[in-house]
């Protein structure tokens, strides 16, 4: 697959009550609906407006403006809901209005400016028709409301031989989300892995090359897909085009539904794809990765 095809990003543009323009990856959006009557629950989080019923299923409705530190709308049924699906869950974001869907290149999405601060709730910025658009960090929004604690790994979930296998594997993790990066690192370290971590695809590519040149090659890369400047698909393509590191086993670890990304991931050369976040599934994926690495080394 060409770089041009792997570098595309569809953004749904919407506005908060302040007029702030934001974008969200269209792959994270299920549907857009008018705000229905909400059921107010006692002791709910202050950023949760209530619960909507969508085709018989309950759905938490997050007041996105309040969640990112702005003044939200009133309690009427104004605005609309963006129903999202990511990291194995569904929720609705209450916003003032939805504008349109636009196409842009991942390479045109820049990291947040330095000094933006941890409360910015954005993963990047880009320009659409001369207007600055901030890309929402929905994972951070959800974590602030309901933190996802890593699952406890049962000692019996992996055999002794599997543990011995993965403990000898050198792993690099890349994710632009601090929350997701820490979740992954906690799990890998509980498995006894010595792993390195970076926050961008460019940094990951450079570290792979540096470690290979130093004679300490990284065997497994666990990479996010949605990252500014260079996404996970483009990173895999770059790796496969460089003979010195082309052998690296790549697991794409994404908050997007993995069933939607498997074909594309394999087409650019990824070995596996997994939806965040399950410590058990991640540990099994690492076992598969390290088995492949060991088999490749034995046949070399």
From TrEMBL:
Gene3D superfamilies: 3.40.50.2300, CheA-289, Domain 4, SH3 Domains. The keyword Zinc-finger does not apply. The modification 4-aspartylphosphate is found at residue 224. Keywords: Phosphoprotein. The keyword Lyase does not apply. GO terms for biological process: chemotaxis; phosphorelay signal transduction system. Pfam families: CheW, Response_reg. It comes from the Bacteria. PANTHER family: CHEMOTAXIS PROTEIN CHEV, CHEMOTAXIS SIGNAL TRANSDUCTION SYSTEM RESPONSE REGULATOR CHEV. This is Chemotaxis protein CheW. It comes from Pseudomonas marincola.
């Amino acid at each position: 697959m060409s770089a041009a095809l792997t570098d595309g990003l569809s953004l749904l543009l919407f506005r908060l009550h302040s007029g702030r323009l934001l974008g969200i990856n269209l792959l994270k959006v299920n549907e857009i609906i008018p705000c229905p009557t909400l059921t107010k629950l006692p002791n709910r989080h202050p950023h949760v407006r209530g619960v909507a019923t969508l085709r018989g299923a309950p759905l938490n409705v997050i007041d996105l403006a309040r969640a990112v530190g702005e003044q939200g709308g009133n309690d009427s049924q104004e605005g609309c809901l963006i129903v999202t699906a990511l990291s194995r869950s569904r929720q609705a974001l209450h916003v003032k209005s939805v504008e349109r869907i636009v196409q842009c290149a991942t390479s045109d999405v820049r990291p947040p400016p330095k000094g933006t601060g941890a409360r910015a709730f954005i993963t990047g910025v880009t320009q659409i028709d001369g207007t600055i658009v901030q890309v929402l960090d929905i994972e951070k929004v959800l974590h602030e409301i309901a933190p996802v604690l890593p699952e406890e790994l049962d000692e019996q979930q992996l055999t002794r031989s599997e543990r011995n296998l993965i403990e000898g594997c050198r792993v690099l993790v890349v994710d632009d989300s601090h929350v997701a990066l820490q979740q992954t690192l906690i799990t890998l370290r509980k498995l006894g892995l010595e792993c390195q971590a970076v926050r961008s695809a460019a940094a990951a590519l450079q570290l792979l090359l540096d470690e290979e040149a130093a004679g300490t090659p990284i065997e497994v890369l666990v990479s996010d897909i949605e990252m500014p400047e260079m996404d996970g698909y483009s990173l895999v393509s770059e790796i496969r085009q460089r003979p010195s590191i082309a052998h690296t086993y790549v697991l794409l670890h994404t908050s997007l539904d993995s069933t939607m990304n498997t074909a594309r991931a394999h087409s650019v050369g990824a070995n596996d794809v997994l939806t965040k976040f399950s410590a058990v599934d991640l540990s099994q994926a690492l076992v598969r990765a390290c088995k492949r690495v060991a088999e490749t080394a034995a046949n070399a």
